[in-house]
Amino acid sequence: MLVSNIKIKNFRNIESAEIFPDREINVIYGDNGQGKTNIIEAVWLFTGCKSFRTSKDSELVNFSAENAEIRLDFENSVRENSAALFIDKKRLAALNGVNLDSPRELIGKFYSVVFSPVHISLVKEGPLNRRKFIDTAISQIDSLYAKKLTYYNHLIHQKNALLKNAAENASLIGTFDIWDEKIAVSGAEITAARLGYIKKLSEKVCEIYAGISGKKEMIDIKYLSSVRFSEETVNGIASAYFEELKRTRPGDMYLKNTSTGPHRDDIEILINGISARKFGSQGQQRSASLALKLGEAEIIKDEKKEQPVILLDDVMSELDITRQNYILNKMKDKQVFITCCEEETVSRLNAGKVIRVENGKAVEIK
Predict the structure, then answer these.
(1) What domain range includes position 74?
(2) Which 3-state string (H, E, C) describes 293-321?
Protein backbone atom coordinates (compact mmCIF):
# COMPACT_ATOMS: atom_id res chain seq x y z
CA MET A 1 0.00 0.00 0.00
CA LEU A 2 1.51 3.31 -1.08
CA VAL A 3 0.03 6.82 -1.01
CA SER A 4 1.29 8.95 -3.90
CA ASN A 5 -0.84 12.08 -3.53
CA ILE A 6 -3.04 13.73 -0.90
CA LYS A 7 -5.32 16.68 -1.69
CA ILE A 8 -7.22 18.38 1.12
CA LYS A 9 -9.79 21.17 0.90
CA ASN A 10 -11.64 22.76 3.83
CA PHE A 11 -10.86 19.85 6.14
CA ARG A 12 -10.69 21.13 9.72
CA ASN A 13 -8.23 24.07 9.65
CA ILE A 14 -6.70 23.10 6.30
CA GLU A 15 -8.27 25.25 3.58
CA SER A 16 -6.14 23.82 0.79
CA ALA A 17 -3.13 21.49 0.69
CA GLU A 18 -1.50 19.01 -1.65
CA ILE A 19 1.20 16.58 -0.56
CA PHE A 20 3.32 14.14 -2.57
CA PRO A 21 4.62 11.77 0.13
CA ASP A 22 7.88 9.86 0.24
CA ARG A 23 7.64 6.11 -0.27
CA GLU A 24 8.91 5.47 3.27
CA ILE A 25 9.26 8.05 6.05
CA ASN A 26 7.26 11.29 6.09
CA VAL A 27 7.69 13.62 9.06
CA ILE A 28 4.97 16.25 9.47
CA TYR A 29 6.11 18.82 11.99
CA GLY A 30 5.09 22.16 13.43
CA ASP A 31 3.76 23.72 16.61
CA ASN A 32 0.67 22.41 18.36
CA GLY A 33 -2.66 23.40 16.84
CA GLN A 34 -1.28 24.04 13.34
CA GLY A 35 -2.94 21.08 11.56
CA LYS A 36 -0.42 18.22 11.66
CA THR A 37 -2.86 15.66 13.04
CA ASN A 38 -5.49 16.77 10.51
CA ILE A 39 -3.34 15.37 7.69
CA ILE A 40 -2.97 12.04 9.49
CA GLU A 41 -6.72 11.98 10.14
CA ALA A 42 -7.54 12.74 6.50
CA VAL A 43 -5.52 9.73 5.31
CA TRP A 44 -7.04 7.46 7.97
CA LEU A 45 -10.60 8.20 6.81
CA PHE A 46 -9.92 6.31 3.57
CA THR A 47 -9.89 3.06 5.56
CA GLY A 48 -13.67 3.47 5.61
CA CYS A 49 -13.68 3.83 9.39
CA LYS A 50 -14.76 6.76 11.51
CA SER A 51 -12.25 9.37 12.65
CA PHE A 52 -10.05 8.36 15.58
CA ARG A 53 -10.73 11.82 17.06
CA THR A 54 -14.49 12.38 16.76
CA SER A 55 -17.68 10.48 15.95
CA LYS A 56 -19.30 13.53 14.31
CA ASP A 57 -18.52 14.03 10.62
CA SER A 58 -19.75 17.63 10.80
CA GLU A 59 -16.74 18.48 13.03
CA LEU A 60 -14.40 17.63 10.14
CA VAL A 61 -15.46 20.61 8.02
CA ASN A 62 -13.67 23.97 8.21
CA PHE A 63 -15.70 26.58 10.13
CA SER A 64 -15.68 28.91 7.12
CA ALA A 65 -16.95 26.29 4.63
CA GLU A 66 -20.09 24.25 4.07
CA ASN A 67 -18.28 21.06 3.09
CA ALA A 68 -14.88 19.44 2.84
CA GLU A 69 -13.18 17.33 0.19
CA ILE A 70 -10.25 14.93 0.43
CA ARG A 71 -8.66 13.03 -2.44
CA LEU A 72 -6.16 10.20 -2.14
CA ASP A 73 -4.16 8.50 -4.88
CA PHE A 74 -2.72 5.19 -3.73
CA GLU A 75 -1.37 1.91 -5.04
CA ASN A 76 -2.19 -1.54 -3.75
CA SER A 77 -0.89 -4.89 -4.98
CA VAL A 78 -3.45 -4.89 -7.79
CA ARG A 79 -3.65 -1.40 -9.28
CA GLU A 80 -3.38 2.36 -8.89
CA ASN A 81 -6.45 3.88 -7.27
CA SER A 82 -8.02 7.29 -6.86
CA ALA A 83 -10.43 7.77 -3.95
CA ALA A 84 -12.43 10.77 -2.81
CA LEU A 85 -14.35 11.76 0.30
CA PHE A 86 -16.93 14.54 0.42
CA ILE A 87 -17.99 15.67 3.87
CA ASP A 88 -20.79 17.90 5.13
CA LYS A 89 -23.00 16.49 7.88
CA LYS A 90 -21.96 13.01 6.74
CA ARG A 91 -19.37 11.41 4.48
CA LEU A 92 -19.82 10.40 0.86
CA ALA A 93 -17.18 8.35 -0.92
CA ALA A 94 -16.04 7.48 -4.42
CA LEU A 95 -13.42 5.03 -5.68
CA ASN A 96 -11.95 5.16 -9.16
CA GLY A 97 -14.75 7.42 -10.36
CA VAL A 98 -17.57 5.27 -8.98
CA ASN A 99 -19.77 6.62 -6.18
CA LEU A 100 -20.04 4.22 -3.23
CA ASP A 101 -23.20 3.57 -1.23
CA SER A 102 -21.26 4.10 1.99
CA PRO A 103 -17.71 5.09 3.01
CA ARG A 104 -17.53 1.68 4.71
CA GLU A 105 -17.21 0.19 1.22
CA LEU A 106 -13.63 1.50 1.31
CA ILE A 107 -12.86 -1.10 3.99
CA GLY A 108 -10.50 -3.63 2.46
CA LYS A 109 -9.52 -1.24 -0.35
CA PHE A 110 -7.10 0.94 1.62
CA TYR A 111 -5.29 -0.46 4.67
CA SER A 112 -3.83 1.72 7.37
CA VAL A 113 -2.96 1.53 11.06
CA VAL A 114 -3.05 4.64 13.24
CA PHE A 115 -1.39 5.41 16.56
CA SER A 116 -2.39 8.53 18.48
CA PRO A 117 -2.03 9.59 22.13
CA VAL A 118 -5.47 8.10 22.84
CA HIS A 119 -4.05 4.64 22.09
CA ILE A 120 -1.86 4.74 25.20
CA SER A 121 -5.11 3.72 26.92
CA LEU A 122 -4.46 0.25 25.46
CA VAL A 123 -1.88 -0.22 28.19
CA LYS A 124 -2.66 2.18 31.01
CA GLU A 125 -6.45 2.05 31.31
CA GLY A 126 -9.14 -0.61 31.79
CA PRO A 127 -9.88 -3.82 29.85
CA LEU A 128 -12.60 -2.26 27.68
CA ASN A 129 -9.97 -0.48 25.57
CA ARG A 130 -7.94 -3.66 25.09
CA ARG A 131 -11.02 -5.68 24.13
CA LYS A 132 -11.99 -2.98 21.63
CA PHE A 133 -8.48 -3.00 20.17
CA ILE A 134 -8.36 -6.74 19.59
CA ASP A 135 -11.94 -6.90 18.27
CA THR A 136 -11.29 -4.07 15.79
CA ALA A 137 -7.99 -5.65 14.71
CA ILE A 138 -9.57 -9.06 14.09
CA SER A 139 -12.45 -7.48 12.16
CA GLN A 140 -9.96 -6.00 9.66
CA ILE A 141 -8.80 -9.46 8.62
CA ASP A 142 -11.98 -11.49 9.28
CA SER A 143 -15.14 -10.02 7.76
CA LEU A 144 -17.38 -12.42 9.73
CA TYR A 145 -15.94 -11.62 13.14
CA ALA A 146 -17.81 -8.33 13.57
CA LYS A 147 -21.11 -10.12 12.89
CA LYS A 148 -20.27 -12.83 15.42
CA LEU A 149 -19.40 -10.18 18.00
CA THR A 150 -22.65 -8.30 17.35
CA TYR A 151 -24.63 -11.53 17.78
CA TYR A 152 -22.82 -12.36 21.03
CA ASN A 153 -23.46 -8.89 22.45
CA HIS A 154 -27.14 -9.25 21.51
CA LEU A 155 -27.33 -12.54 23.44
CA ILE A 156 -25.72 -10.97 26.52
CA HIS A 157 -28.15 -8.04 26.34
CA GLN A 158 -31.11 -10.44 26.17
CA LYS A 159 -29.77 -12.61 29.00
CA ASN A 160 -29.24 -9.58 31.24
CA ALA A 161 -32.81 -8.45 30.58
CA LEU A 162 -34.02 -11.89 31.69
CA LEU A 163 -31.90 -11.70 34.84
CA LYS A 164 -33.48 -8.36 35.71
CA ASN A 165 -37.01 -9.69 35.20
CA ALA A 166 -36.57 -13.12 36.77
CA ALA A 167 -37.21 -11.85 40.31
CA GLU A 168 -40.75 -10.89 39.33
CA ASN A 169 -41.34 -13.75 36.88
CA ALA A 170 -39.86 -17.04 38.14
CA SER A 171 -40.92 -18.88 34.97
CA LEU A 172 -38.07 -17.12 33.12
CA ILE A 173 -35.51 -19.10 35.11
CA GLY A 174 -36.45 -22.22 33.15
CA THR A 175 -35.18 -20.56 29.94
CA PHE A 176 -31.68 -19.84 31.27
CA ASP A 177 -30.16 -23.14 30.06
CA ILE A 178 -31.26 -22.39 26.50
CA TRP A 179 -29.76 -18.90 26.60
CA ASP A 180 -26.57 -20.10 28.27
CA GLU A 181 -26.03 -22.75 25.59
CA LYS A 182 -26.27 -20.08 22.89
CA ILE A 183 -24.00 -17.72 24.82
CA ALA A 184 -21.45 -20.48 25.44
CA VAL A 185 -21.15 -21.40 21.74
CA SER A 186 -21.13 -17.79 20.53
CA GLY A 187 -18.68 -16.73 23.24
CA ALA A 188 -16.41 -19.67 22.43
CA GLU A 189 -16.18 -18.52 18.81
CA ILE A 190 -15.15 -15.03 19.95
CA THR A 191 -12.61 -16.36 22.46
CA ALA A 192 -11.07 -18.83 20.00
CA ALA A 193 -10.61 -16.04 17.45
CA ARG A 194 -9.04 -13.78 20.07
CA LEU A 195 -6.67 -16.51 21.29
CA GLY A 196 -5.51 -17.21 17.74
CA TYR A 197 -4.96 -13.52 17.09
CA ILE A 198 -3.05 -12.99 20.35
CA LYS A 199 -0.63 -15.80 19.43
CA LYS A 200 0.16 -14.13 16.11
CA LEU A 201 0.28 -10.67 17.65
CA SER A 202 2.61 -11.72 20.47
CA GLU A 203 5.27 -12.94 18.03
CA LYS A 204 5.16 -9.67 16.08
CA VAL A 205 5.05 -7.42 19.13
CA CYS A 206 8.00 -9.12 20.86
CA GLU A 207 10.23 -8.50 17.85
CA ILE A 208 9.03 -4.92 17.35
CA TYR A 209 9.35 -3.97 21.02
CA ALA A 210 12.88 -5.37 21.14
CA GLY A 211 13.75 -3.01 18.28
CA ILE A 212 12.06 -0.02 19.90
CA SER A 213 13.79 -0.59 23.26
CA GLY A 214 17.17 -1.43 21.75
CA LYS A 215 16.76 -4.99 23.06
CA LYS A 216 16.98 -3.70 26.63
CA GLU A 217 13.46 -4.84 27.55
CA MET A 218 11.17 -7.77 26.80
CA ILE A 219 7.42 -7.64 26.36
CA ASP A 220 4.88 -10.41 26.84
CA ILE A 221 1.16 -10.50 26.02
CA LYS A 222 -1.31 -12.85 27.67
CA TYR A 223 -5.03 -13.38 27.15
CA LEU A 224 -6.93 -13.43 30.44
CA SER A 225 -10.17 -15.38 30.11
CA SER A 226 -13.04 -15.21 32.60
CA VAL A 227 -13.18 -19.02 32.54
CA ARG A 228 -10.60 -21.79 32.55
CA PHE A 229 -10.64 -24.35 29.74
CA SER A 230 -8.36 -27.26 28.95
CA GLU A 231 -8.91 -27.27 25.17
CA GLU A 232 -8.54 -24.16 23.02
CA THR A 233 -11.09 -25.43 20.52
CA VAL A 234 -14.55 -23.89 20.07
CA ASN A 235 -16.18 -27.02 21.51
CA GLY A 236 -13.79 -27.18 24.45
CA ILE A 237 -14.21 -23.49 25.28
CA ALA A 238 -18.00 -23.66 24.84
CA SER A 239 -18.25 -26.58 27.27
CA ALA A 240 -16.24 -24.70 29.89
CA TYR A 241 -18.32 -21.55 29.38
CA PHE A 242 -21.60 -23.41 29.80
CA GLU A 243 -20.48 -25.01 33.06
CA GLU A 244 -19.23 -21.68 34.40
CA LEU A 245 -22.46 -19.92 33.42
CA LYS A 246 -24.42 -22.51 35.42
CA ARG A 247 -22.07 -22.22 38.40
CA THR A 248 -22.28 -18.42 38.53
CA ARG A 249 -26.03 -18.26 37.87
CA PRO A 250 -27.08 -17.55 41.49
CA GLY A 251 -24.65 -14.64 41.71
CA ASP A 252 -25.67 -13.36 38.27
CA MET A 253 -29.33 -13.44 39.32
CA TYR A 254 -28.48 -11.41 42.40
CA LEU A 255 -26.40 -8.87 40.46
CA LYS A 256 -28.71 -9.04 37.39
CA ASN A 257 -25.70 -9.24 35.11
CA THR A 258 -23.79 -11.98 33.21
CA SER A 259 -20.37 -12.30 34.82
CA THR A 260 -18.82 -14.89 32.48
CA GLY A 261 -17.81 -14.56 28.84
CA PRO A 262 -15.50 -12.70 26.46
CA HIS A 263 -17.17 -9.40 27.41
CA ARG A 264 -15.36 -9.82 30.75
CA ASP A 265 -11.95 -10.86 29.39
CA ASP A 266 -8.74 -8.84 29.29
CA ILE A 267 -5.24 -8.75 27.79
CA GLU A 268 -2.27 -8.53 30.14
CA ILE A 269 0.84 -6.70 28.92
CA LEU A 270 4.07 -7.38 30.78
CA ILE A 271 7.45 -5.65 30.41
CA ASN A 272 10.31 -7.69 31.84
CA GLY A 273 7.67 -9.80 33.58
CA ILE A 274 6.00 -6.85 35.34
CA SER A 275 2.59 -5.32 34.60
CA ALA A 276 3.03 -2.43 32.16
CA ARG A 277 -0.31 -0.97 33.25
CA LYS A 278 0.57 -0.81 36.95
CA PHE A 279 4.31 -0.26 36.92
CA GLY A 280 5.41 0.81 33.42
CA SER A 281 6.85 4.28 32.84
CA GLN A 282 5.13 6.66 30.42
CA GLY A 283 7.79 5.85 27.81
CA GLN A 284 7.34 2.09 28.29
CA GLN A 285 3.55 2.36 28.08
CA ARG A 286 3.79 4.44 24.91
CA SER A 287 6.33 2.01 23.41
CA ALA A 288 4.12 -0.97 24.25
CA SER A 289 1.05 0.69 22.72
CA LEU A 290 3.04 1.51 19.59
CA ALA A 291 4.33 -2.06 19.35
CA LEU A 292 0.74 -3.36 19.54
CA LYS A 293 -0.32 -1.12 16.65
CA LEU A 294 2.73 -1.98 14.54
CA GLY A 295 2.11 -5.67 15.29
CA GLU A 296 -1.44 -5.21 14.04
CA ALA A 297 -0.01 -3.80 10.80
CA GLU A 298 2.28 -6.81 10.35
CA ILE A 299 -0.63 -9.22 10.73
CA ILE A 300 -2.63 -7.31 8.11
CA LYS A 301 0.38 -7.61 5.81
CA ASP A 302 0.57 -11.38 6.39
CA GLU A 303 -3.17 -12.02 6.09
CA LYS A 304 -4.11 -9.58 3.31
CA LYS A 305 -0.79 -9.43 1.42
CA GLU A 306 -0.90 -5.64 1.68
CA GLN A 307 1.47 -3.49 3.76
CA PRO A 308 -0.72 -0.95 5.60
CA VAL A 309 0.23 2.70 5.64
CA ILE A 310 1.45 3.58 9.16
CA LEU A 311 0.10 6.79 10.73
CA LEU A 312 1.88 7.88 13.92
CA ASP A 313 0.48 10.96 15.64
CA ASP A 314 2.59 12.54 18.40
CA VAL A 315 4.42 9.27 18.93
CA MET A 316 7.76 10.83 19.90
CA SER A 317 6.66 12.39 23.19
CA GLU A 318 8.25 10.80 26.27
CA LEU A 319 10.44 8.47 24.19
CA ASP A 320 14.22 8.45 24.65
CA ILE A 321 16.66 8.93 21.75
CA THR A 322 17.03 5.19 21.11
CA ARG A 323 13.27 4.72 20.71
CA GLN A 324 12.88 7.83 18.58
CA ASN A 325 15.73 6.73 16.31
CA TYR A 326 14.01 3.36 15.74
CA ILE A 327 10.86 5.10 14.58
CA LEU A 328 12.66 7.62 12.36
CA ASN A 329 15.30 5.42 10.77
CA LYS A 330 14.65 1.70 11.36
CA MET A 331 11.12 1.21 10.04
CA LYS A 332 11.90 0.00 6.55
CA ASP A 333 9.80 -1.30 3.64
CA LYS A 334 6.66 0.54 4.70
CA GLN A 335 5.21 4.01 4.20
CA VAL A 336 5.06 5.93 7.47
CA PHE A 337 3.62 9.33 8.39
CA ILE A 338 4.86 10.79 11.69
CA THR A 339 3.79 14.03 13.36
CA CYS A 340 6.04 15.83 15.84
CA CYS A 341 6.72 19.29 17.23
CA GLU A 342 10.47 19.34 17.80
CA GLU A 343 12.87 20.52 15.11
CA GLU A 344 15.62 18.60 16.90
CA THR A 345 13.72 15.36 16.22
CA VAL A 346 13.42 16.22 12.53
CA SER A 347 17.17 16.79 12.30
CA ARG A 348 17.81 13.12 13.18
CA LEU A 349 15.93 11.84 10.13
CA ASN A 350 18.44 10.13 7.81
CA ALA A 351 16.19 9.79 4.76
CA GLY A 352 12.66 10.63 3.78
CA LYS A 353 10.52 13.74 3.47
CA VAL A 354 9.83 16.57 5.95
CA ILE A 355 6.66 18.64 5.68
CA ARG A 356 6.15 21.71 7.85
CA VAL A 357 2.60 22.66 8.78
CA GLU A 358 1.75 26.18 9.91
CA ASN A 359 -1.72 27.71 10.19
CA GLY A 360 -3.19 24.86 8.17
CA LYS A 361 -0.68 25.22 5.31
CA ALA A 362 1.67 22.36 4.42
CA VAL A 363 5.08 23.12 2.92
CA GLU A 364 7.66 20.51 1.91
CA ILE A 365 11.07 21.54 3.30
CA LYS A 366 13.15 18.42 2.64
Answers:
(1) 2-111+307-364
(2) HHHHHHHHHHHHCCCCEEEECCCCCCCCH
Task: Give residue-wise pLDDT tens across range 106-135.
Answer: 988 999 999 988 888 899 999 999 999 999
Query: Cα-Cα-Cα-Cα dihedral of 238, 122, 352, 18, to 10°?
Result: 90
Amino acid at 108: G
What is the rounded distance in angstroms from the CA atom of residue 202 to the CA atom of residue 218? Answer: 11
Binned at pLDDT 50, 70 and 90, residue 6 comes out as very high
Same domain, 105 and 136: no
- Judgement on whether residues 202 and 74 belong to the same structural domain of the protein: no
Least confident of 183-187, 282-286, 303-307, 316-320: 316-320
Residue 322's identity, in one-letter code, is T
Boundary (domain end) residue, out of 236, 259, 277: 277
Reply yes or no on whether the pLDDT at 67 is more than 90: yes
Tell me, yes or no, whether 131 and 247 share the same domain: yes
Domain CATH code at residue 317: 3.40.50.300
Q: What residues form DSSP beta bridges with 16?
A: 9
Q: Compute the distance between CA of residue 20 and CA of residue 14 in angstroms, rounded to an integer.
A: 16
**Whether residue 354 has pLDDT greater than 90:** yes
Residues 48, 131, single domain; the answer is no
Q: What's the CATH code of the domain at 217?
A: 1.20.1050.90
- Write the burial class of residue 152 (CB in 10 Å: 0-12 exposed, 13-18 middle, 19+ buried): buried
Same domain, 94 and 13: yes
Whole-angstrom CA distances from 21 to 62, 84, 265 are 23, 17, 41
Residues 35, 149, single domain; the answer is no
Query: By C-alpha distance, which of 259, 271, 290, 294 is closest to 222?
Result: 271
Residues 234 and 347 in one domain: no
* Cross-strand partners of 113: 310
Instruction: Report the domain count for the chain.
Output: 2
List the Cα angle 120/125/130 in 5-degree steps: 75
227 CB neighbour count, 10 Å cutoff:
22
Which phi and psi (to 5°) does residue 185 adopt? -70, -45
